[in-house]
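Final report, closing paragraph on structural work. Over the funding period we assembled a curated collection of sequence-structure pairs, and we close with a single example.
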Amino acid sequence: MVVLRALPSACADVQPDMAHPDMLQTSKPARGRPSARADATTWGRFCLVLACAWPLSGHTAVSMLQPPRVIDGTQPLALTLLISAETGTRRYQVPDTLEVTASGDLQAPVKLILRRTDPGPAVLSLHKGENRKVRYAVDLPPGLRGTIRLDAVGIDAAPVLVTLNRLATPGQPAAAPLAGPAPAGEAQSADHTPAMTVPAVPVVPVASSTQPAPAPADLRDSARLSFNDPMYFIVGAHGGANAKFQLSFKYRIFEGTDPASRRLIDNLYVAYTQFSLWDLSEDSKPFRDTNYRPSLYYYLSDTGVHNAAISRLSLATGFEHESNGRDGDESRSINTVFLKPTFYFGDQNDWHWRVAPKLYAYVEKSDNPDIAHYRGYMDLDVAYGRADSWEFAATLRKGTRQWYGSVDARVTYPLARLIPGTAGYLMAGYFVGYGESLLDYNHKLPWQFRLGYALSR
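Its predicted structure, as stored:
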């Protein structure tokens, strides 16, 4: 089995004798010593390559060629897999399909299955220094618009960005029809160059199907300034017309040269969340309460913990302040330190569970000394859903006294599935219990069911 691992240093070693204007070829650097040319300048030059990969066995290099930055969105998406032999004569089993996760700006990811388009054998025989290109294509769904991020599934590869132009260009030739691969016994390579058959050499799969697929891109972690908690605006009418909305962002303070770094300074974030309850039934439409929640914390989007049950584990820990900005008897304020692991169970490209217990300790709570009786010491967020479909989620709290606590349930669905070209989610929310806002931490208000729009979930 060949396990592919994306290494920036591998991208720097381009073999001049095999260079081509539309491809990059990688070679394996010496074990334990990064390539001398793999500096920041070289990596920036090749950062748009979809995958620069090398196998642990050291016998092959597999990469994805960069498609044009702007592609015709009315034509099939075409990607090319480059397979090259580095040592000796090798035989490689070429997959019939290539799975890619495509996600647009503020849109839910979409799974694309690309089929092989050019005739060629299912098994390639390559000598040292030889390489072959294998092409794949798929029709793009109409819901994808603008700048699209492509993540290869089953191959540990860097993502790539392309921009879709859905205005058909007159006179542009149609894309080649999708075609299946040629029979395995056909002695022809992917670029129609005869290849020598070496029966005694074992066949090596290009990508092992037994390896777990990489997690899809998490939109909340896709940029230096990104989403933090869910952002939404929803309206209800129980006990009088009212609205509930939340804004939430986080910002990575320092971004080092090593994207896999786990140092404190490289993974330090500041975040700001603002939550409001708006009373629409009164003449002046006053805000019942607004809560301000800045935080400073260490965050790892993926800790590297993977097993048969857990497909991904994120971790956040730090300091948080929450207050409502009022004075006198209506003043509410708490300072906490928290630890929040987020567990993902199941294939993140499909239906899966997300469980995120946020445990906290009160550093200061003089404005509301009994708040733990109603809120407790943990927010438990549980969700079940799929990136491009429904998600059912709830945040649960249990106070230390009696049956004090709350349930904040949410159901969301991608709006782009209903109206192509849009972003965000349709949202329904239900709250019952104590403390929907800090002002009412010790009051149980009427239950509320609300409908509206969510920018993130």
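Confidence is low (pLDDT under 50) at residues 1-58, 170-200, 208-217. Residues 145 and 216 are 18 Å apart (CA to CA). We thank the funder for supporting this effort.
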